[in-house]
Write a structure and sequence with these properties.
- The protein has 8 helices and 6 strands, in the order βααβααβαβααββα.
- By secondary structure, the chain is α/β, with parallel strands linked by helices.
- The protein has a single domain, classed as Decaprenyl diphosphate synthase-like (Undecaprenyl pyrophosphate synthetase), CATH 3.40.1180.
- Strand 3, helix 5 and strand 4 form a beta-alpha-beta unit.
- Bound molecules: 3-methylbut-3-enyl trihydrogen diphosphate (2 copies) and magnesium ion.
Length: 231
Amino acid sequence: MLSFSKIPNHIGIIMDGNGRWATKRGLPRNFGHKEGVKAIERTILACQKFGIKYCTFFAFSTENWKRSKEEINGIFNLLRDYLAGGDNFFVKNKVKLKYIGVLSPFPQDLQDALKDTIDKTKDFDGLVVVLALNYGGRDDLVRAYNKLLKDKVEKVDEKMILNYLDTSFMPEPDFVIRTSGEERISNFMLYQMAYSELYFPKVYWPDFNEKHLKKCLKIYQKRNRRYGGIK
Ligand code: IPE
Ligand code: IPE
Ligand code: MG
């Protein structure tokens, strides 16, 4: 049974396996990304149902620029069409959208579609969905340190670093899930994940659904978070 008293405040999802999902079916990789968007929708609705406050989806890393132009443009077009389409999922389901990462290298129409959805959903007070776009944990730290230098702070402490990271508006992730069976962080929130619980289900991201999320949450609820102490 899922206990509603021990639901993580913030979950981070490293959505992996879109390419392998498509290749397994003899389809081009971008078909996997397209199915992956449906999995994002299912997961958002499930997060609302389970009472999660923040869910961050790792959608494009600072390293993903190494992929082919075709794949990268496919992802951008998919995201733009998805956000700019008539029936906006976030507006319809009262989901507040935010992002972390650096948007400036993305095509202007994608940036506009994203900012428009962010603006239209900014007053919703339920689930906050965060897209990590052109995001890297190291890049987040480097940009934070440069902002600290610019602000001429005399001494840095841990809280200050947290406040200068892209994620400053939300709590650190309690739970990070990476699908597809790969067991690595791939430059997701490095500083913020110091005490996150981790779980690596085998399922490829496009197949992920409410049942998988429920199983992940059950596993989270069995964990004993000690933070270096004794419980
Ligand atoms: C995750 O799926 C989506 C992105 C990184 C954009 P992948 O595209 O990495 O899928 P695999 O790992 O090749 O199967
Ligand atoms: C991590 O997946 C990044 C995202 C999910 C956006 P990758 O597929 O890019 O990671 P590696 O290359 O397997 O480490
Ligand atoms: Mg991958």
